[in-house]
Amino acid sequence: MASVQKSKQKKKEKRSLSELKTLGQELLNSRGHINNLPILLSFITPNTPTHYALESLLSLQSFFIPLLPQLPSSSTFHSKQSNPDPEIVYRTWLRSKFDELVNSLIDVAVSTSQSQDALREVVLDAIMEFVKVGNSGKFHSAIYHKFLHALVHSDLGVDDILLDLLATKYFNYIDVRYFTYISLEKLTRTVEKLTLDGKDKSRSSDVEDKSQLPSMELSILKMHNLLSHIPPLEASEEKLDYEMWNDLGIFIGKSNSKEHVDLEAKQAKSHKSNEKVLSSRNVAKKMKSKFTKAWIAFLRLPLLLDVYKEVLVTLHQTVIPYLSNPIMLCDFLIRSYDIGGVVSLMALNSLYILMTQHGLEYPNFYNKLYALLEPSIFMAKHRAKFFQLLDSCLKSSLLPAYLAAAFCKKLSRLALCVPPSGSLVIFALVHNLLQRHPSINCLVHQERGAGTTRETSAGENDNIENAKDFSASRDSFDDKPGIDHFKNEESDPKDTNALRSSLWEIDTLRHHYCPPVSRFVLSLENDLSVRARTAEIAVKDFSSGSYATVFNNEIRRRVKQVPLAFYKATPTSLFSESEFPGWTFQFNDEDHLEASAKKQRIT
């Protein structure tokens, strides 16, 4: 076999480019030179020089394009007839050579050889031309699926030029999008099955080939790249004439024709009578169904952390509006929201949309949201969107008082340990909470013992004689001033005792070192002292703040009054005695005379 391949390679090297061009012209001009077809096919390989492969491809493409509507399908190769028609045998043989050409073109397209980069765009165009008319003049989904399968499972990188060419040149055609969704759904199911089989094998045996893991991760990355680059079918795109890659279209009604008896005679009639083009609304419905199946199948895969985050960030904009039933994402989003940390932060936006617009019920939503309030959230990348969503989630007037008080108190406690920009966001959120929920205004000024008297009066109905000394001492301890009943470490808002506490943290920040923070506290006190309802503060104005924004705003601020060190009389000491009661500062006259004498000499 090796000697045969070497001899074929020598014959290929002996042929010049002009001879190859002559073989192609002979094949196109006469049926008698059909034996030139296998010779030209032998030059479509990843190792063939670019100019040789290009010349052979141009000849073969020009030869097969007119014949494709007349060739039988791949399933009719093996004929059981005793005396088959020579014409059928000839066309069947041509079909087999066409399939060889397609396989060779796919090998060249997914090849990692740098010498073939100039040829790959031409090969992609040739494959898509064959997809266009390869199925008796219709869209050949089998060739397209084979190409995508080879592309996804190849060693090509995610940023390969072939993926960009496919997206930019062909994803604007709606039939290409349609079959891309179908193929990607099938590919995700096969990858999911392979990953499950790989896990079972790894559990059964420790010595296992782990080289498939990186390839699976690369395949998942490429599938996400393809899915994210397909433009969704907007509602405004529902029109009568969609831009199709195949002129016959794919969205057609069911026809009664089952077999192709006389293809040349009945092809024109079938398109007129049997095939009825669907309406634009039905086309949008079919596209939405395939879009949903592809994305739901993809989200079942074991995604990498970077892909997982990227999907969660863009899910509410690029996926949810175009799903046939967005509630199908509830399991994925709830599972992501329960992870905690940054992943929960990214899943919050999409989960909030499902709850407010699609009727999703999630009882533990506010408990998980309360758990996200940590100092690290004020340094997160997507903190601006989180604070806006937090303000929206706490906007409902139906929230119980203990829940609003718990969020208000938790945010106030965080204001003591976050950057100044975070304190400004907290003040805006606390201000809005107090304005929306008058029942928690007791946090502004909590009377001493107001929280404990309610508990003792409720406990008078019980048997006081059986009360322990420990509980009595604990109650006496709680009645002491300066005791905060708020449980900051409690994860359940209803068990935090927030209504028994007060917002002393806000009052503490009145003397903050950062002037914007102290000014905001004063304005907050002024708003709360007014009994009339004031306007809510826009959280988005402070949600994306940082040290840089606080510094720049302070520089641009025009100050009307500037503090100056002005004295009516010359000071005799650095500090006055009133500032240090009990201390005396004596002035030495001799040192003063020596200093004045030195000053006179200098002048």
What order do the helices and strands come in, and which of them pair?
Blueprint: H1 2-14, H2 17-29, H3 36-41, H4 50-64, H5 86-109, H6 117-133, H7 141-152, H8 161-170, H9 174-204, H10 212-229, H11 263-273, H12 280-299, H13 305-318, H14 330-337, H15 341-357, H16 365-371, H17 383-393, H18 401-414, H19 420-436, H20 450-459, H21 469-478, H22 504-508, H23 515-529, H24 547-556, H25 589-602
Helix pairs in contact: 2-4, 4-6, 5-6, 5-7, 6-7, 7-9, 9-10, 9-12, 13-15, 14-15, 15-17, 18-19, 19-23
Shape: elongated
Strand tally is 0
β-sheet strand percentage: under 5%
> Percent helix among the residues?
55-70%
Biggest β-sheet: count, sense, barrel? none
The stretches of 5 or more residues where confidence is low (pLDDT under 50) are: 1-6, 202-211, 253-277, 450-477
Query: Helix count?
Result: 25
Structural class based on helices, strands and sheet pairing: mainly alpha
